[in-house]
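Revision sheet: structure tokens.
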Amino acid sequence: MITPYGRDNAFLMLMIGAGLMALALTPVPMVIAVLTTVLGLVLIGFTLWFFRDAERPLNPEAVGQDAVIVSPADGQVTEVFQIDHNADVGGPATQITIFLSPINLHVNRYPATGQILRADYYPGKYLMAFNPKASEENERAEFALQTSAGTILYRQITGFLARRIVYDTQAGDMARAGERFGMMKFGSRMDVVVPASAEICVRTGQKVVSSATILARLKGAAA
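Predicted:
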């Protein structure tokens, strides 16, 4: 099943793939026919894989537990580091960065249950997603989410190949952990910022699965 967040791109790419395969049926040299057929099949296969909308059941430990922060994306943890101050969190914080390769599932899910305080889009550059400056300089969308155990921040960030962010969240919305809210197209990263007091449950280099992997447990008092 193709995600609704990517049907516009997927349809165009499937049409191009079909066109390449159809070209092989015209009077062209055999080598051209073979090449266009292979390219068409690869493009169609990649499109169906990249824009798939696989199910990601919520980790049972997060059900009814607002303090449990789950991964909003599939990928690999590339950084876990301290921040002196984050305005949304309201003090010292820890940032967890997840890198998504083009073969990862790119549909994103809410990392926790609570209310969206802000949802802001920022146009920007297209630095490599693993560049530390990408969090502040690349095209991105930032979301502050208030849970009963504290406020967290998460960011969709484009990379060198990713050129479009899609989300259907706005300030005031109620988020439910594990529910879909958008996607990033063609390789990207996701930052999750939690209070410094939170227990961090992942490490650099670890593979994570959206909704299933617990990133952190908040220790703040209920709001």
